Model the fold of this input.
Amino acid sequence: MKICVIPARGGSKRIPRKNIKQFCGKPMIAWSIEAALQSACFDRIIVSTDDVEISEVARQYGAVVPFMRPNELSDDHTGTIPVISHAIKWLQREGHQIDQVCCLYATAPFVRPEDIRRGLDTLTETGCFYAFSVTSYAFPIQRAIRVDATSRVEMFSSEHFNTRSQDLEEAWHDAGQFYWGQTDAWVSNKMIFSPDSAAVRLERHRVQDIDTPEDWLRAEWMFKAMRAQTN
Done:
C-alpha cells in the first residue's frame, strides 16, 4: 500500500490559515491534493491536521482525514518525520500494510503529478530510504557573504574570492514539495538529508517557499505566469 500524507496544522503564524487560504482560486491545500490524485500513485491520500476546518476542506477536494492529529504533534516545534510516523503507525494499528509513504506539503502549489511519479520511480530504482525534491541555488554558495550588525561584510569561504563561478561545484537545496520514503525509514526516524537519500531535481522557477506575505505574492505571480504559458 502506498500512501500520501499531507501535514496541515491549523496554527500558522506568519500567514494565518495559510493551508486553506485562497491561492489562485482554490484553497492552498487543494493544489497538493489534486496533484496527488492525478499522479495515480496512492491507495490513500491522508491529511494530517489538528484543525476541523482544514479537515473539511481536505475532504471536499478528495483527501481523507481518518484521525485528528494530537496536540503534542501540532506545535511550532514538531518536525515532519514525527508527523508522518504518527500517520503510519495509526494506519498500521488499523491493520494496513504500508510499503512507501510520500509526505507532500500542503503549501506546494507548483508540485506536478509527473514529479510525484518521478519521485516514486527514483525511490524504487535507487533502493534509498528517501527520494525528495531539490533545486539548485541561483548563486554559488561558496561566494556567500555574511553581514554583521554594523553592515560590515565577510565571506563565508574567503578562499574562493578569486575562483570563477563556473569553476565552483553546483549546490542544491530542499525544494520543499515532496519526500518519498520507505515505511521503516519514517518510523525509525532516519535522517532525510543523508547519503541514503536520492534527489529529484526540479527547475528553480517551479520552486517557491511560501512563509511570508511577500513569498505568497511572488508565488501567485509565478503561478499565474506559468498557467498563462500552458493555456
Remarks:
- Helices lie at 28-39, 52-60, 80-93, 113-126, 183-187, 213-230.
- The CA atoms of residues 30 and 128 lie 29 Å apart.
- The longest strand covers residues 172-182.
- Strands lie at 2-7, 22-23, 26-27, 44-48, 100-104, 130-136, 145-147, 153-155, 172-182, 197-201.
